[in-house]
Amino acid sequence: MPQLRSGARRACLRSKKVDKAADPVGSPAVLPPQGRARRRGGVVPGSGRGNKAAAKGRGRSASKHRGKGLEAIDLQIHLPYNNLPEPVVAGEAVICTAHKDLCLGKAADRAAILRMVGDMDKFAVAEDDATTSPVPERVQVGNSPEYLTGKKLGKGGFGQVYVGRRVSGGSSRMGPDAYEVALKFEHRSSKGCNYAPPCEWHVYHTLNGCYGIPSVHYKGRQGDYYILVMDMLGSSLWDVWNSVGQAMAPHMAACIAVEAISILEKLHSKGFVHGDVKPENLLLGQPGSLDEKKLFLIDLGLASRWKEAISDKHVEYDQRPDIFRGTIRYASVHAHLGRTGSRRDDLESLAYTLIFLIRGRLPWQGYQGDNKSFLVCKKKMTTSPEMLCSSCPAPFKYFLEMVTNMKFDEEPNYSKLISLFDGLIEEPASRPIRIDGALKVGQKRGRAHVNLEVSEQPKKKVRLGSPVTQWISVYNARWPMKQRYHYNVADSRLHQHIEKGNQDGLYISCVASSANFWAVIMDAGTGFCSQVYDLSQVFLHKEWITEQWEKNYYITAIAGATNGSSLIVMSKGTPYTQQSYKVSESFPYKWINKKWKEGFHVTSMATAGNRWGVIVSRNAGYSTQVVELDFLYPSEGIHRRWETGYRITSIAATPDQAAFILSIPKRKPMDETQEILRTSAFPSSHVKEKWVKNLYISSVCYGRTVC
């Protein structure tokens, strides 16, 4: 058995005496409060408007409790957080959001976009031909010539793409006078339009003429459809990859890399990120034309702004785990986690695209089911650049390392990224892809050759690191007070430590578990006047919780063990007026977001194995809350939240993920200092060092992080 350890900090100032009339604490047995208890919190699911069993036991009818503000305990098992509402798909591309006010669209520009990849990355498209009116046989929008609608090139989440041929005239292969064009139809009732012009139109209008982006010559509405008239292009890189035996030569991938980087640089300079870089969206020009070796980036349905149009400031950082945008196979890790899109995400998707073209397969292909995005994201974060690029030349590994190590608002060094591939680029006559844009970048900036072996690495890693399980402890600045900790505590010793703390005027402020042993933090600054706890073999014992809610106790700390047991602490003297909780197989962000809208805030979290338990309370004293969720450790997100006034108020972690709730208090503390530590062992020595600085443990957990 691990050695039992304890520690205590005596207050430098005289602490307040505990009210002698307070209920004794330290035993699972509960002394009933004086007077009639008001009904609080939740009731057992299926009990209708009230807890009939409890009412019957008191000799009162359940009907007397109608309208008392009861909150049902929600024990429904959630699907993984990546199983989001209203998925919309083009090929593998998906956008999922629970927010109807987001103006986002997704559609196919080529038939190749709809070709499914060997690992069955398939989704149902949002619309069916049978549910919409047929596309017009003849098209004329704005001041365009009249076109006959020809064969269908492809279909995506919202749109359909057809060949359009001029009824008369047309003397060129490209441009407004082209005799053959691509016609993109989107039905006005599709989610991409919602009875208004698609948001993609605005992006094309802003970018029209941008290097590497196909031109839109005409647009307008005809009948039930919004229509774009665009340049006709050639094969996609997906088609090319298939034609060369599903393994592209590194020198060709290098040409694609430098030209794609230059296209993204031009796109980013206009204030947009593409949001769905992949082989199907990178096309060559028409065969036999002057542009047949020129690369184009198509499909702006998921494009979004990284820079505000008016102020030119970078958009604000945020994380919404219920929103995923892009294609699962090639999406950046940040896109999987619901973080605001920025320039780094396009470059990370390009890195996965290049590695796929060379290797022919990525390690995360083959996952299926509702938790596919969860598993893919986890695999991406645990696959090192060395492993992923083991069969690729060194420049591709360095490129991946650089782009996955970028900060949210960091400006990419496009010239340096392009120069990584200089050694793989052949003479102009042998180049399978034109690199006009990359050459212009080099001439403009005087690009120098990068020595890959001694290339300067970023000073601070944003994401790279090895996943480990550690103790995570959070410390807040407080007035001097008494605090005590116990760790490696077996079930049989809990009562002894808690009872001794109560006798000394201390109450439990937070609890945690590691290897089925408990860690208990007790201090004199909780403000509680009475406390009870329950050690149960099930994760969050609902009957016991409901019973204590009836006695005006509220949940103030929870912990779960890997064997499924849990420790629940409930207290009197809190400001809470109502509580609810959720037990889920995945982090229940959608449920939390729903509760935020109802006036609740997260006040406690815990995990038991891979299960999550989240407590929300009304009147918690917070004005707003956010979540930082990661498969490693969200260092960048936490520091950005700190800079905007948020402080960590709850933490929990499984062997796979760590979650942090950060809050802005309604009443600003005099000293907002907060520190966080990650240690392989319980931080007993660090705690004592923090006490000297009047920093006290406010939250602690054990689980996934990074070293």
TrEMBL record:
Signal peptide: none annotated. Its EC number is 2.7.11.1. GO terms for molecular function: ATP binding; protein serine/threonine kinase activity. Residues 147-425 form the Protein kinase domain. GO terms for cellular component: cytoplasm; nucleus. It comes from the Eukaryota. InterPro entries: CK1_Ser-Thr_kinase (IPR050235), DUF7477 (IPR055900), Kinase-like_dom_sf (IPR011009), Prot_kinase_dom (IPR000719), Protein_kinase_ATP_BS (IPR017441), Ser/Thr_kinase_AS (IPR008271). ATP binds at K184. Residues 1-67 are annotated as: Disordered. PROSITE patterns: PROTEIN_KINASE_ATP, PROTEIN_KINASE_DOM, PROTEIN_KINASE_ST. Keywords: ATP-binding, Kinase, Nucleotide-binding, Transferase. Residues 55-67 have a biased composition (Basic residues). One of its GO terms (biological process) is regulation of long-day photoperiodism, flowering. The keyword Disulfide bond does not apply. SUPFAM superfamilies: Protein kinase-like (PK-like). Belongs to the protein kinase superfamily. CK1 Ser/Thr protein kinase family. Casein kinase I subfamily. This is non-specific serine/threonine protein kinase.
